[in-house]
Amino acid sequence: MMTMEQTIALIGFGEAGSTFAAAAGWGKMARAFDIRADRATIAADAGVTFCNTPAQALAGAQIVLSLVTADAALNVARDYAPFLAPGTVWCDMNSVAPDTKRAAAAYVDTAGGHYVDVAVLAPVDPARMAVPLLVAGHASDIATQLLHAAGFANIRSVGAEIGRASAIKMIRSVMVKGIEALTAEMMLAATSAGVAEEVLASLDASERKQSWFVRAPYNIERMTTHGLRRAAEMEESVKTLTALGVDPTMTTGTVRRQREQAGHTIAIPTGQTA
After folding, report:
1. Residue among 236, 251, 237 nearest 182 (CA)
2. What is the pTM of this model?
């Protein structure tokens, strides 16, 4: 653990900040600021000093964990960077686009801090301090050391380019969050049609566990070869969902993607696990 008193600043003390603080036992080594004053109680329960202003939270901090909402990440970097001491490491752990992180980095670096792009690749609960973190930026080495000292146990540097860690997370989310949205669309229709159990059983019967280094090129090849036919089939799926009163948002996108991918391939790395 870190030995200096009050060396961690938490900007945003919602689920992520409070989970990390409680799991790591930072106590008075950490100061927190959140625009929601009611979170002072949560901070007190974790032994963390809750500050009335961001300037108070950032004063003398060695490392900053920015854990705000995605729409606030850039504004927080812009507005709070002037309060940083020279050399402070600003870890932007928010789920935002690479361009947003590069814009935020400009504010922090101009103020004399060291901006680090951090991608959090799993829910913080239950992973807590073992949550996978990707770090990118010129200060990624020092950030890695400070994050390890703070108790984080699963950190990997992905290079010096700001936005690289974010790009990995955002692109990965296309699949992860897309599957969630597709699942909801499928289950709304299956429930409405009264065939949910049969649909799920059919999926279980056809599911194969494969590395994505194998699955991705297979999926792309199916679209390259059969995209037009599959687009036509999915248009019928759109009609099915519409008739059941389900907005076919995801399925309509599938029609377009299948049609556009027909006849076109995508280069995919083989990977060591293929």
Report:
1. 251
2. 0.82
Residue identified by tokens 């790009």 is 167
Q: Can you read off the two tokens belonging to residue 189?
A: 């229709």
pLDDT one-digit tens code per residue, 7-54: 999 999 999 999 999 999 999 999 999 999 999 999 999 999 999 999
* Strand ranges of the sheet holding 155-157, from the earlier edge strand across to the other edge: 49-50, 30-33, 8-11, 63-66, 89-92, 114-120, 133-136, 155-157
**Domains identified in the chain and CATH numbers:** 8-162 (3.40.50.720), 168-261 (1.10.1040)
Is 111 a residue whose pLDDT tops 90? yes
For 251, the 3-state DSSP assignment is helix
Nearest to 166 by CA among 101, 80, 89: 101
- Asked if residues 74 and 100 have their Cβ atoms less than 8 Å apart, the reply is yes
pLDDT at residue 62 is higher than 90: yes
pLDDT value at residue 273:
44
Work out whether strand 8-11 and strand 30-33 pair parallel, antiparallel, or are unpaired: parallel
How many residues comprise the chain?
274
